Please model this.
Amino acid sequence: MRFVIITGISGAGKSHTIKYMEDLGFFCIDNLPPELIPKFADICKRSADKMDKIALVVDIRGGELLKELLPALDEVNGLGVSYEILFLDAGDEVLIKRYKESRRAHPLAPEGRLIRGIKEERRILENIKGHANHIIDTSNLTPKLLKEQLTQIFVEGKVFDGLIISVTSFGFKYGIPLDCDLVFDVRFLPNPYYIDSMRKLTGKNETVREYVLKYKETQVFLEKLNDMLEFLIPNYIKEGKSQLVIGIGCTGGKHRSVTIADSIYSSLASKGHRVIADHRDIEKDNRGAVK
Model:
């Protein structure tokens, strides 16, 4: 039986997560009091029509009862039922933006400042986060990408090393993404934009990819960059970093940066890293473009 506890910071995506877990075949219960978890686990274990995939959402809405979560999970373990904790997190600025867009009050700051409620919630959940098997930072994840992450963990069974890598292509003319940890400028590479037959294409097109990748400077750059990332990633994981955003920029974000970002994505994915590719500016100023 796979028994998953979903918890985390309010506004980090637990509602989306429980819907996707249902899509993945999990029997889901939202906001179950912790003291009832061992009883429910025992029922599931003894059920004739055995439920083999369970997901329970437990969070700050339970108030003081949340303190009983870890002791309750010790009881679950004592029943011979293995459990996993999935912790959802997001940056403070992202959480504040989400709350303002939804016009909802934070559970710990119904009439006060959002940031105080968020910081207090982080303090309360710190110990639980330390026991989590899986931590997903949803700051840069669309609902689709979140579902892909859940599928990789709970369906494909991929080993989660705690680090999610996002490789983002962008155009410098539109500004550098604010959340990038590493930024690489590939405007030194030959530009397909100046070739009429490729101007309306993007780095997703094979003709453009072949053009960008055929140059020696491209191959040397990719080799050195991949070597550096292979050095940095284990050290980021050791340091406890949960998300790494790599920005690859060219002038408009449609040709060179897309090609290089996809190449880096493929290289990292082939080595077993959890990686997402995103092309921020690929559609800008490109009406009628052909990928």
